[in-house]
Amino acid sequence: MVGENIENPGVYPLFTAIAMAEAEGMDLVEISPNAEPPVCRIVDYQKYLYQQKKRQKEMKDKAVRTEMKEIRFGPNTDEHDYQFKLKHARNFLENGDKVKAFVFFKGRSILFSQQGEILLLRLANELEDVGKVEFLPKLEGKRMILIIVPKSKKK
What we know:
Layout: E1 2-3, H1 14-24, E2 27-32, E3 39-43, H2 45-62, E4 68-73, H3 79-94, E5 98-104, H4 113-126, E6 131-140, E7 143-150
Parallel strand pairs: 1-3, 4-5
Antiparallel strand pairs: 2-3, 5-7, 6-7
């Protein structure tokens, strides 16, 4: 048995360990049941549960959350518009967000699907320094989609 206020940790019979825990007004908690003999600890169980929940919440807060940002192009997107959207995509990737770039084809513009693919590949090529392609351009209905994820930062 181990604990915070135990002078000589060691092996005690169960009823003695329970009596020691009650004398301190705390609980006897089994830490490692598979050890030989099992390891127990005298702690305030409610306080222990509270600290465990608090640690899990801190871990959850530190977890990295990535968002999916969308950028929409037309098959005949002008150069200025392309550069404007390229700048936004670069900012999104530098902030750690995924970028879903897509070309939306309206009506008969589906005939220009090659132009859309060229546009998306050009975008992927120009963002190569800050991101990597997760999915190559793929036509899904009236949309051609490309997904770029940020490169991991080296420490």
